[in-house]
TrEMBL record, chains A, B:
Organism from which the protein derives: Cellulomonas marina
One MF term in the entry's GO annotations: transcription cis-regulatory region binding
Keywords: DNA-binding, Transcription, Transcription regulation
Protein's recorded name: DNA-binding transcriptional regulator, LacI/PurR family
CDD domains: HTH_LacI
Length: 330, 330
DNA sequence: CTGAAAGCGCTTACAG
DNA sequence: CTGAAAGCGCTTACAG
């Protein structure tokens, strides 16, 4: 089954490849007779012609492919929703999105040997060597959550920190506002998440300091009922009355641990997660959580990508991208 | 920042582009002097040369890119793990994996205008029109879970059904084996999952029939405590003593619903999920579930992809890819 | 209104 | 041991 080229279509419709290209691309400024146009379209359809992406990219000097590089850490429904929306957003502008998994297993540079993206969007910061390699390959790097202040179109680790801190701060302010005064932070056991956890924790600390509350206790809570119970026993003994969890999964472990040590939620201890995963509202008790407005985030990421590609100023980050969902656990 | 080409490297090292290509690709059968080789390598490194994937693909007539097309439905940690492993597996053979989200929003054919994959792996069956378009574009389609019987390297909806049915059968046999006789099937409310749910349900029905048990009751259980309670009330009244859930998320909803109507788990009703997501072991009570051995599945999918590309016979599916994890809920 | 020709960057027979 | 040249499939000035 030989692949059909534009030359085949030209031959079949009795015109030149130029005309085929004009018709199929709807090139503006050309005037092809309706009859010719119809013949070309018919031939292309009949032969099942699909233009070669490689040739088109080579000739144009740029592709319409955007590669999203996923962080090293596990992906949940929130990121999935983000990717879906981003794909739809960018498709409206003629850009195709493809996602790279397995980051960290081998250098990103290997990928550029096999594919020529126009831009690469990172959900976590790139390191300088990666940035350099991309730019040398003519690829535009785009940072997620970058440009919150509208300043820097380049990936900036500090910008991530800002968004993450906001989450921690919101969690802490919620419990402090409900009269809880002895807070603990439940960090994830997965070390790949340590960076994010540290940033969210910084937000928690800031909120505690601002409210004049005690420094929060901190411990890793693995997704295991027994291990979680051990941590919760210590916390209960220390008089902890509120737990901020890194995300809903960690929060679920905290709920299991508290149950095991006989602490009542929310009477004795209030718990707040992050993400609003489906499991949150089904938990016992239903879990209060911080919801990231992922559609807003995706739309912004799409806007940042387009602005960066166009060389325009990066739009400011929308103000409210996180909000609290209060349920039975707080 | 002009992009560096092999001609630049040739000029900088005082050799022809031919020699640059030979050195950089380690082309076998060529004998380049060590001194020349070193000069070329040094120049490429110094200039930050990255070969053009588009040109290489055009020239070679094929790329080393494999695109995985995600199904229309929501992605959880299981699929994430599968993609990670598949990416690593295929990278060992020089293939790069990129993942397409947002299926169904627009035709896959649009994607082939922007990228030239060597193969496309579908986690759900392709429809005939898509298959046709891919083949005409010179792309090799590969079906997930295909070739279980080693017969058909082409995507085959029936092969999916086989794997899915096995899951439902395993769930049902477990509860029937524990003396439960009045089973119910908790289907997902998300209509995009209806196809899979129907296949798993078929396995449940087969197991019930084989054991001489009554036909299972069937209802959709949304991820909402109140809605789930409504369903569970009906089931409790009907004397249901065992519930098979489409996946862990649905099972969590069932647990919430049963709790709401005062049914004890597992004393009154046993519950079994699918996936072994982190939330399963943290549920109240900890959830029994069917675990898919996703690494095995990923390795097999990689093997199927390679065999299909090489025109070899597709390897048989490994025998045990699902297993039961028994916890407190059954 | 349409076609002949150049050229994107690479790889690879082929010639020396 | 190394280079000149062709050609992958496309788009786009340019010529008619």
């Amino acid at each position: 089954m030989a692949v059909v080229t534009s030359a085949d279509v030209a031959r079949a419709s009795g015109v030149s490849r130029t005309t085929v290209s004009y018709v199929l691309n709807g090139t503006p400024g050309t005037t092809i007779s309706a009859a010719t146009r119809a013949r070309v379209l018919e031939a292309a359809e009949r032969l099942g012609y699909a233009p070669s992406a490689a040739a088109r990219t080579l000739r144009r000097g740029r592709s319409d492919l955007v590669v999203v590089v996923l962080p090293h850490w596990p992906i949940g429904p929130v990121v999935d929703a983000l990717l879906d929306r981003l794909t739809t957003d960018l498709a409206e502008r003629g850009l195709s999105v493809l996602v790279h998994h397995g980051r960290g297993r081998r250098p990103l540079a290997d990928l550029w040997r096999h594919v020529s993206p126009r831009a690469v969007v990172g959900l976590a910061p790139f390191d300088p060597a990666e940035l350099d390699a991309m730019r040398r390959a003519g690829i535009t790097p785009v940072g997620a959550l970058v440009g919150r202040d509208g300043r820097d179109p380049a990936p900036d680790p500090a910008a991530y920190a800002g968004a993450q801190e906001g989450i921690g701060r919101l969690q802490a302010e919620h419990l402090l506002g409900r009269g809880r005064s002895r807070l603990a932070y439940a960090a994830p056991a997965d070390e790949r998440l340590a960076g994010f956890a540290a940033q969210r924790l910084a937000g928690v600390r800031a909120a505690c300091a601002a409210a004049g509350a005690a420094h929060p206790l901190v411990a890793e809570v693995p997704p295991d009922p027994d291990a979680a119970a051990e941590v919760c026993r210590v916390w209960a003994a220390a008089g902890v009355d509120g737990v901020l969890a890194y995300n809903d999964e960690v929060a679920l472990a905290v709920l299991a641990g508290l149950r095991a040590v006989g602490a009542r939620v929310p009477e004795d201890v209030a718990v707040v997660g992050v993400d609003d995963e489906p499991a949150a509202r089904l938990a016992v008790p239903p879990l209060s959580t911080v919801q990231q407005e992922i559609e807003v985030e995706a739309d912004h990421l799409a806007a940042v990508t387009l602005a960066t590609l166009d060389g325009r100023a990066v739009p400011p980050h929308p103000p409210t991208s996180v909000r609290l969902v209060v349920r039975g656990s707080s």
